Amino acid sequence: MTEDLRVEAAEAARAAVVRAAPDPRTLHAALDTTGYLTDTGLTTALYLALRLPQPLLLEGEPGVGKTEAARALATVLGSPLIRLQCYDGLDAAEALYEWNYPRQLLSIRLAESRGVTLAEADLFSDDFLLRRPVLAALTHPGPAPAVLLIDEIDRADDDFEAFLLEVLAEASVTIPELGTVRAAVAPVVVLTSNRTRDLHDALKRRCLYHWIDYPDTERVVEIVCRRVPGTAPSLAAEVAAAVRRLRTLEVQKPPGIAESIDWVSALTLLGVERLDPEAADQTLGVLVKYREDHDLIRDRGLAWLVGKPED
Predict the structure, then answer these.
(1) Cα 197 to Cα 75: distance, rounded to the nearest angstrom
(2) Are 12 and 144 in contact, with CB atoms under 8 Å apart?
């Protein structure tokens, strides 16, 4: 891509972002139309990530809506959400690219059958490149930038964090066979962390930061009623209160908004109109996923969980 085309693409991307989010209030309303309810702090963080632009690190307990924030932002922009799920042992090649070796081998055999010799540059070209999430986000043509979600970065190791520094700082990566690939339309980068380990200062310095806490009961009711159409507000309120009560116990995995939505969905499917100990007992596996947590809740009492007095 020539420098003139690169500048033109960058300007088009900036214009698309400004149209989608001219100010925080407009962005808040746009996120609301996607079904993602947010507060002023998170809206402002997302707005700044778009307009500065700068990567955004979202931390919080599992299930509070970190991933959904990136998904909603992509919907507002009308651009793809490109997700990289991190895990222990993830390396740069798996995040960036790999070569299509079967296709390369086939090309070599076809060339040999025709008496043609392929040069190394013929084999290591864009035609044989398989783009993984990071490279796919950097080469997205626009006009609006792609949203690159680097999910659960705390699960990756130090070496992968170091690799990300070039991506976050320069919106570019180096491929030995091709050279440096620089984004014409830099992606909006959202990193999420469940804080299972501390991230390096070098990574944090390149990011905006926002902590997403558990929402209050009223907000949970509103979210659940949107995500599970037809839910009675009274049932949603009972579930929200029960989940909040459960988090006071020392469970291995405190439930978040996602589990609240799943619980209401299950209860609604079973025709449950009010949360009682029997309904909680039948559906407890939707809410908690460890045997020890089940035992802990039952020892405390299902009547306590649903807010009903003991008989």
Answers:
(1) 30
(2) no
Domain boundaries, the chain: 3-212, 217-306
pLDDT band at 303 (very low <50, low <70, confident <90, very high): very high
Q: What are phi and psi of 83, to 5 degrees?
A: -110, 130
Which CATH number is correct for 3-212, 2.40.50.100, 3.10.50.30, 3.40.1640.10, 3.40.50.300?
3.40.50.300
Q: Is the pLDDT of residue 310 over 70?
A: no
What residues contact 201, with CB distance under 8 A and at least 6 apart? none
> Does residue 4 register a pLDDT over 70?
no
Q: Provide CB contacts within 8 A for 235, sequence distance 6+.
A: 264, 267, 268, 272, 273, 274, 275
Distance set, CA 195 to CA 47, 60, 124, 156, 192 (Å) = 23, 7, 39, 12, 9
Q: Does pLDDT of 311 surpass 60? A: no
Residue 85 has pLDDT above 90, yes or no: yes
**Continuous segment of H or E residues that includes residue 67:** helix 66-77
